[in-house]
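tool_call: predict_structure(chain=1)
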Amino acid sequence: MKIPSSIWTLLIGILLTLVSLWYGQNHGLLPTAASDEALLVDGLFNTMMIVSTGIFLIVEGGLIYSAIKYRRRAGDDQDGPPVHGNVPLEILWTAIPAIIVLGISVYSFDVYNSIGGFSPHAVHEAPIASQAMKMPGAAIAATLTDTPPSTELNLNQEKSDEAMQDPATAAVRNADQIPQKQNAPGVGSVAPTIDPVPGKEGQPPALVVNVTGLQYAWLFTYPETGITTGELHVPIGREVQINMTANDVIHAFWVPEFRLKQDAIPGRQSEIRFTPNKEGSYALICAELCGPYHGAMRSQVVVEKPEAFEAWMQEQQVASNDTLNQAVAVNPAELSPAEFLAPYTHDIGIQSETLHQLHNK
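tool_result:
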C-alpha cells in the first residue's frame, strides 16, 4: 500500500518538531546560568535554537533529498524540464521567515524590558528636542557636539560627578583628564542606563559598585566604604548595580554565566544590573579588543552568601585601615627624605650627599 504524500509530510513535520524541541532544550552550548537575568536570556536563546534547528533540518533535508532523487541517471543527456515560478510558494517562504523574525524581535524586546531596558532620558533630551523645533538642523548639530551648551544637561557628567564623590573611586579614575561626552541619541551615542527590574521600581539596589576599566585590569570600588579591589565580590540573591567607565580605551564587562555584557567607554558612564543566584567564582572577561594584552584582562566575580560577603567587606575595611596606619607609621617623626633613608643608604651603597642632591633636583 502506497502511503499518501500528505501523510509523509505530516509524519516528517512531527519528527522535525520533536527533534527541534529536544535539541533546543538540550544543546549544552551555554555555561551555568548564575543570575536571574540569565534564565530569561536562556529562554530566548533556546527558542532561537528550536527555530534554527527546524529550519536547518528542513532546508538541508530538502537539499539532500533533491540531490538524491533528481540526480542525473547514467545515459541521460537530456536537458532538464523548464520550471516556472510559483507565486503562492514564493509568498509562503517569504512570509514565514518574516513572521519568525518579527516574533523573535518581540520576544527579545520583552526579555530586554524584563531585565530593565534603557531609560528614556526624557528630561535630558528635552532641551535638544525643543531647540530642534526652533532651528532646522539643530538636532543634528546637537547630537554631534562633544561639549554641551551651558543650558543643556550632560548625563555623563552628572553620573561622573556623582561617582567621583567617593574618594576611592576618584583615586582610580581619570575623570579630570577625560571630558564627559554629551548624549547624542540621534546617532546612538548615549550613557547606557538600565532601569530597575519590573516590580522593583523605587527600590534602590542592594549594592552599588563603581567599576573602572584600564589597560589591562578591572578596578572595583565600593562607595562609602573606601574599599578598592581587583576582584568583584557580590552577595547572592541581591540586586547589584554596576556603574562603569574606562580610563583609556573601550573595554567590555562580560560575565558569561550572567549572560550580560556592557561596554566601558572613556567619557561615558555605563550601567548594568544583575541579581546573582548561584554561589561560585566566575570569570570576568574583557570582550573588547583593548590592546596587545587584551587576552590577559581577566578578573573574578565571587558570588557568596550574605554573611560571607559582610565578613569579606569587614576584612577589606580592616586591611585598608591597617595599610593606612602602616603608611603613616613609616615616618612618624616626619623626617626629611635624607634623614629617613640614612640607615639604609650604607647597606645599598648610596652616599647621603648623592641622595641629598637627587632630592633637591
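agent: The chain has ten helices and ten strands. Proceeding to next step.
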